[in-house]
Amino acid sequence: MTDIGWWGVPLAVIAGAIRVSTPFLFVSLGECLTEKSGRINLGLEGTLMMGAMSGYGIAYLSGSPWLGVLTAGVVGAAFGILHATICALPRVNDIAVGIALMLFGTGLAFYLGKPFIQPQAPILPSIDFGAWSGIPQVEAALKINALFLVGLALAPALRWALANTRWGLIVRSVGDNADAARAMGYSVDRARLLATTAGGFLGGIGGSFLALYYPGSWNEGLSSGQGITAVALVIFARWDPMLCFYAALLFGGAGALGPALQSVGVTQGYYLLNAAPYILTLLIMIVTCSPRRSLIGAPSELSVVK
Amino acid sequence: MPARISAALGALAEPVCIPLFALAASLVLFGFFVALAGVNPLDMYALIYQGAFGSWFSWQNTLTRAAPLLLTGLCTALPAQLGLIIIGGEGALVAGGLAAVAAAAMAVGGVSIAVAGALRHYRGVNETISSLLLVYITVAIFNQIVEGPMRDPASLNKPSTHAIGDTNMIGNIPGTDVHWGFVFGVLASLVAYVLMYRTTFGFAARVVGGNVRAARMAGLPVGRLILLTCALGGACAGLAGMVEIAAVQGSANYSLVAGYGFTGILVAFLARHNPLAIIPVAILLGGIAASGGLLQRRLGLPDATTLVLQGIIFVVILASEALYGRVTWLRTQGVAA
Known about the structure:
- The structure holds 2 protein chains of 2 kinds.
- Chain A is an all-alpha fold.
- Chain A has a single domain (5-305), classed as ABC transporter involved in vitamin B12 uptake, BtuC, CATH 1.10.3470.
- Chain A has 13 helices and 2 strands; from the N terminus they run ααααβαβαααααααα.
- Chain A has helices at 8-36, 44-62, 65-87, 94-113, 136-141, 146-164, 166-176, 178-183, 188-212, 226-236, 241-263, 270-274, 276-288; strands at 126-128, 143-145.
- A two-stranded antiparallel sheet of chain A has the order 1-2.
- Chain B has a domain at 63-271.
- Chain B is 74% helix and 0% strand.
- Chain B is globular.
- At the A-B interface, helix 4, helix 10, helix 12 and helix 13 of A face helix 5, helix 6, helix 11 and helix 13 of B.
C-alpha cells in the first residue's frame, strides 16, 4: 500500500464530498421543489429517517437494494402527501406541521426499525472510476455510487423543468403569487400537494442512501440533522437546483473533514469537526440573509423568508 | 350563572374543547396503530393509565418526568408569544446541564436561545432552522467537553464528568421521591403566565406576536422584547438541564440528551403556548413517558412507542387548528354569554 500521508486528508475530503453529499443532494432537491411551490417542509428530517428505515428493511427482506430505494421514495412521498394535506387546511402553519412530522417520522422509524438494527442488508452498487490510478486511496475515493450520478443528472433536469415546462411554470407561479395563480385557474393546493409529494419522494431516497450505502446500516443515530441542514442549504442555494448540487458537495466535504483528519491521527476536536456542516450552515445563513430585503430568487409565498 | 362567569367559560370552550378532542382523536388513531402490532388497544390504555397515574409510585415517576417538560415547554411557549417558532430547547437544556450551577445554567441556556432570536431580528435568519442547528452544535460541544477536558477518567464505558457530589444535589420534596425541579417548573410556569398576561412587558410582547409592524409603529422596542423573551425561554430550558444533572443524573453524560427539549415543543403547542396550560399538559406527557417502560415490559412494544404516540398527538393537534371558529356549537357557547 502506498503511503500518501497528509495527502490523504484533501483526498478523503473530496471523496467524502462525493459520498456524504448524496443525501444532502436528494433532500435539498426535493425541498427546493417544495419551496418553489411556496411551502416549506421541515419534516424532511423525519422523511429521511423513514426512508432510511424502510429502504433498509425492504432491501434486507427482498435482497434487492434498488427495491429498497424505491420503497423509501414511496414512503417519503406518503409523508409528503400527509404534510401537504394537513397544510391545506385553513389556519395551519406549515413550519409547525414540519416539526410535528419530523418528530413523528423519527419516532415511527425507531418503532418499526427495531428488527432491522442487527441484520446486514445488501448495499447499493458503486462504479469504480479510479482503477487506472493503482493507488488504493484514490481508488477508494473515486468509487462513486450510482445514486450520486442519478442526483447529478437530476439537478440540471429539475432546473430545466422549473424554467421551461408548463409544470414548472405552474409550480413557480403558485409559489410566487398564489392569488394570481388561482385567478389563472390553477389549483394552488393541488400544485403544492404534487410538489410536496415529489419532494418527499426525493427526501426518502436521500434517506435510503444513508442506510444502503454510506454509512450503510440502519441504526437510530443514522441521521442527526442531515435533513434540516439540507433545508437550510436550499436557502443558501437561492432555490436553484444546480446551486443545490454545489452546496451539497460543499456540505459533504465539510462533513467528511472530521473522519478524514481522524484517519491520519488527528483526534483532537473530533466531535466539533463532526459538527462542521451545522456550523457552516449557520454561518452561511448569517452571512447571506438580511432583515430588510427578501432573498433573490426566493418564492414570495414562502413563510421562512417573509 | 352570572353573565361574567359564563362569558369566561364560553371564551374557554374552544381552546379547551378542541385540544381535548384532538387528544382523544389521536388516542383512537394510536389505538389502531398498536392494534396492527397485535396489541389490544384497551389493554394498552389501561397500562398507560396504570404506569402514569395508577398509583402513588407512578404519580411520582410522572411528576419527575414532567419537571423538565414544564421548563422546556416554556422555552418554546415564551418566544411563541412573539410569533417566533423556537425548537432549540434540547440545546439549551444540554448547555444548562453542562453548566450545572443554577445561575450559570440559566445564563448559558438563555444565551443559546437569545442567539436564535437575535439572528432573526438583526439578520433575518429563520429562527426555527437556526435554533435547531444550534441544538446539533451544542450537543457536539457537550460531547467534546464530556469526553475531553471534563471527563472523569473512571467512567470508561459511559463517558461522564466527575460527579457533582451529594452535597450539591438538589433533594426531593419532603415525603416524596419527586425532586424540587418539579416545583421550579410549576413556579416558572406561574411566573411566565403573570409576566405574559398581567404585565405591560407581556402585553408588548403579545402585540409584537400579533403584528410586528403595528408594534414598531407604536414605538415598542421589538428587538429588546425578542431578545429578552428568547433569553427567558432559554433560561427555563437551561434550568431544566441543571435540574436533570443535579437531581437525576449526578454528573453530565450522554443520558442528558434524552429528547426532553423536543417533547417540550409538543408541550408548548398542545398548551397553545399558554404557560398555565403547560402545567397539566407537561404532567400528561410526563405520564405518557413514564408509562413507556411498562408498555415495553408487559406488551413487548418497542421503547419508541411513546415517541410514535407523541408524534400522532402533535400532527393531530396541528390539524385541529382548522377547527377554530368552525364548530358552531362551541361558538354559540361563546357568543350567547
